C-alpha cells in the first residue's frame, strides 16, 4: 500500500488517530475478517482506508461509520471506493446499528478503533449482538488481555464479564507500534468477538448484570460481600454456592449472571 494516501491528512490527536500502514499486518487482518456478500460488512472509523480498500475489493458494498468530516470527504472522492461505500458521517458511539439490518443477514463489524472510545463502543455494540456474526477490532493489547482474561487474573474486570457474557473472545494477532503512522506508545492487538447464538448463561435482565458487575468491580480490593452488601445477604451467597469472601476478579461470568438473576427475581 503506497504512502501517498497519507498526503494531506494529519493524524489528529483528538480523534485518537493512528493509521495502519504495514501491508503484511493489513492482509492478515483482512483474512481474519473474511469479507463476503452474505453479511452486512460494517467498518467503524475507516480513517485513510488501509483496511477499507482491501476489504471492499472482494465485496459489492461496504458500510462505514466515520466521525472525521475531512476523511468522509476523501472517501467520497476515492476513485475505487466511492461506488462501493455507504458512508455514515457521525459518532459510532451514538450510531443506531439497527438501521443497517437486512432480512436474513447478520453484520460483520470491524475497525481499527481509537483507543479512547474502544470500551464504550464495545458496550454499545453488545446491544446489537444478536444481529452480529463477528467483530474484529484493533485495540490496545492491554484491552485485548482484559477481554480474554480468566477469573483470578489482574486483567479480569467488568469489561471481561460483559464481553464474555455476549461473545466468544479470540485474540488473533499482536501488532507492534511500527505498523502505524504515527507509531502509538503502546502495543496493539487484534481480537475476534463472536456473539453467541444463545448466551451459555442466560441473563433475565442485562441491566442487572451491568449493575452487579460495575458495583462489584468498583472496589477491586474488597470482597464480594463488602462490595455487594446493599444487594445480597450472606444467605443469598450461600444459596447460590458463591463464596462471599472472594474478590470480584475471582468470580466467574456464570456466577455474576446467577447473582444478576437473583437480583431480578427479588425486584419483581
From TrEMBL:
**What's its catalytic activity?**
adenosine(1518)/adenosine(1519) in 16S rRNA + 4 S-adenosyl-L-methionine = N(6)-dimethyladenosine(1518)/N(6)-dimethyladenosine(1519) in 16S rRNA + 4 S-adenosyl-L-homocysteine + 4 H(+)
As for what it does, the entry says:
Specifically dimethylates two adjacent adenosines (A1518 and A1519) in the loop of a conserved hairpin near the 3'-end of 16S rRNA in the 30S particle. May play a critical role in biogenesis of 30S subunits.
The entry's protein name is Ribosomal RNA small subunit methyltransferase A
Q: What sort of enzyme, by top EC class, is this?
A: transferase
HAMAP family per the UniProt record, alphabetical:
16SrRNA_methyltr_A
Task: Give the residues the record marks as binding S-adenosyl-L-methionine.
Answer: 18, 20, 45, 66, 91, 112
Give the subcellular location.
Cytoplasm
Upper lineage: Bacteria, Pseudomonadati, Pseudomonadota, Gammaproteobacteria, Alteromonadales
- Lineage top rank: taxon: Bacteria
Alphabetized GO MF terms: 16S rRNA (adenine(1518)-N(6)/adenine(1519)-N(6))-dimethyltransferase activity; RNA binding
Q: Which family does it belong to?
A: Belongs to the class I-like SAM-binding methyltransferase superfamily. rRNA adenine N(6)-methyltransferase family. RsmA subfamily.
The gene for this chain is rsmA
For whether the record's keyword set contains rRNA processing, the answer is yes
Q: Where is the Ribosomal RNA adenine methylase transferase N-terminal domain?
A: 25-197
